[in-house]
């Protein structure tokens, strides 16, 4: 892992794309709750950043910590840079850092192909079997359900059977039991994908 404080190259990219306005803190749930007109301004700036950043700069951010990775994933989603799909899938499965996995799930939900659904299903296959770990299982389930709506594949169904892997995971440590339903996770991901789409419309040259 690379650190901006020790890496001038990474530091320069972070200063341009990650830290302005503390962007990395506002991606995800905080963005969904952001009032207008602040949200429109934020999404416009995000769309412009997604158009400006280069693939090598995105790859560099993905070598950093959670701030860099979360921001990179959103920029990848907005710019529809599907060439990063497999790398993000590997990073989601590895779960090396916290606070970034939900952004990967939103990116897959935005790309919206069978390949993205397969990556989410692979993650759930591994981490729903770990009731001791509370990682990005809710976001992955919400994203997979969202993709099922569009693709009609029903990949999430096998996880949601009575006494299936989802219920086994939910029956783990007590703090999981207070979480909401899979349908609510699906709605949350759908709202974030809509924000990605709105931001994408602000990219220079994009049709409004």
Task: Explain briefly what this protein structure is.
It contains twelve helices and no strands.
Describe the structure.
The protein has 208 residues and is mostly helical. 62% of the residues lie in helices and 0% in strands. The chain has twelve helices and no strands. The chain has helices at 8-17, 23-26, 29-32, 38-52, 55-61, 66-79, 85-94, 101-111, 114-127, 137-151, 165-170, 182-200. It is globular, with a radius of gyration of 17 Å. The N and C termini lie far apart (38 Å). The model has no long low-confidence stretch (mean pLDDT 95).
Please tally the β strands and state the result. 0
Q: What does the largest sheet look like?
A: none
Give the SSE string. Answer: HHHHHHHHHHHH
Strand residues, percent: under 5%
Category by helix and strand content: mainly alpha
Mean pLDDT: 95
Total helices: the number is 12
Question: How would you describe the shape?
Answer: globular
Note poorly predicted spans: none
Percent of residues in helices comes to 55-70%
Q: What is the terminal separation in angstroms?
A: 38 Å
- Report the radius of gyration as a whole number of Å: 17 Å
Provide the descriptors you would attach to this structure in a database record.
single chain, 208 residues, mainly alpha, 12 helices, globular
Chain-wise SSE layout:
Layout: H1 8-17, H2 23-26, H3 29-32, H4 38-52, H5 55-61, H6 66-79, H7 85-94, H8 101-111, H9 114-127, H10 137-151, H11 165-170, H12 182-200
């Amino acid at each position: 892992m690379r650190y901006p404080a020790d890496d001038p190259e990474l530091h320069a990219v972070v200063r341009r794309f990650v830290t302005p306005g503390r962007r990395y803190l506002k991606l995800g749930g905080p963005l969904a709750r952001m009032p207008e007109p602040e949200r429109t301004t934020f999404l416009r700036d995000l769309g412009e950043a997604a158009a400006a950043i280069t693939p090598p700069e995105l790859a560099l951010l993905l070598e950093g910590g959670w701030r860099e990775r979360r921001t990179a994933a959103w920029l990848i989603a907005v710019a529809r840079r599907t060439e990063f799909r497999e790398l993000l899938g590997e990073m989601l499965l590895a779960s090396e850092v916290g606070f970034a996995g939900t952004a990967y799930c939103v990116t897959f939900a935005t790309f919206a192909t069978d390949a993205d659904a397969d990556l989410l299903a692979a993650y759930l296959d591994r981490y729903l079997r770990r009731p001791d770990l509370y990682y990005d299982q809710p976001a992955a389930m919400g994203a997979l359900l969202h993709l099922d709506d569009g693709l009609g594949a029903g990949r999430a169904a096998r996880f949601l059977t009575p006494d299936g892997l989802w219920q086994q995971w939910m029956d783990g440590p007590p703090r999981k039991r207070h979480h909401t339903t899979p349908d609510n996770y699906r709605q949350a991901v759908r709202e974030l994908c809509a924000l990605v789409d709105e931001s994408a419309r602000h990219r220079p040259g994009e049709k409004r």
